[in-house]
Amino acid sequence: MKARLVVFPIKGKIWCFSRSIDQSASAFNSANTPSTVKELWKKISSNSKPLNANAELLVDFISNKLLARVKPSEILLKSISKEVTNVRITYPPSLNSRLVRRRLRHIAMRGTVIHRKYFYGSVTLLPLTTALAVLPLPNIPFFWVLFRTYSHWRALQGSEKLLELVSDYSRAQNPSAEMMEASKELDELLRKGYENGSVNEQAISDICIQFKLNKIDVLKWRDLV
Q1: Closest CA to 215 of 24, 67, 28
Q2: 7 forms bridges with which residues in the sheet?
Q3: DSSP assignment of 43-106, as one string?
Q4: In 10 A of CB 75, how many CB atoms?
Q5: 105 vs 164: CA distance, rounded Å
Q6: Which domain holds residue 93?
Q7: What residues form the membrane-spanning segments (predicted)?
Q8: pTM to 2 decimals?
Q9: Is residue 33 pLDDT above 70, yes or no?
Q10: Who's near 158: CB < 8 A, 6+ residues apart?
Q11: What's the domain count of the chain?
Q12: Residue 154 above 80 pLDDT?
């Protein structure tokens, strides 16, 4: 499977790193992910799939509700599944290709450390939040910790896979695993929309449409403090 990563400066020294949306996969997920608790329960209770499939359904449902609290780097890393065999990195010619690759490696390496740490931390909290099930209230802490556990696990897997794909060793062994692509079109959109130290809303919308990016995810990079 191929993945396209789009990289560009979005605010000051902050860069945006986002994966182009797989339209077919996006449509499939939208059609299969329930939008209400009632629909979720109906799917799980009538689902003959294995436990892990139901767990993914639950996590995707919670992700849609709590995604605003997830950092953009985590969203990027979670999008790199084990099925991805090569990446095409699109960036404006104004950026140095080596620097782009180096910053992607940094995100991947940092992700392996952070998400491994928080994955094990979340796992240790699961038994404690499970004990809250005796209370006559929805066990929100348990579902939140469950969501974060699975989310950190997926981000950890994505970190390791991305690091593998953009490492110098991987490029030497398999030159097709990564392709750097300087886009004049991206550069032009940025040039027109860069004002007051950041990319304006219209330019972000145009970039997201042209390169099939999720605008909500892109805005998360711009709004990083």
Answers
A1: 67
A2: 17
A3: HHHT--S-HHHHHHHHHHHHHHHHGGGS-HHHHHHHT--TT--EEEEEE-TTS-HHHHHHHHHH
A4: 22
A5: 9
A6: 2-222
A7: 118-147
A8: 0.77
A9: no
A10: 76, 77, 78, 79, 80, 81, 111
A11: 1
A12: yes
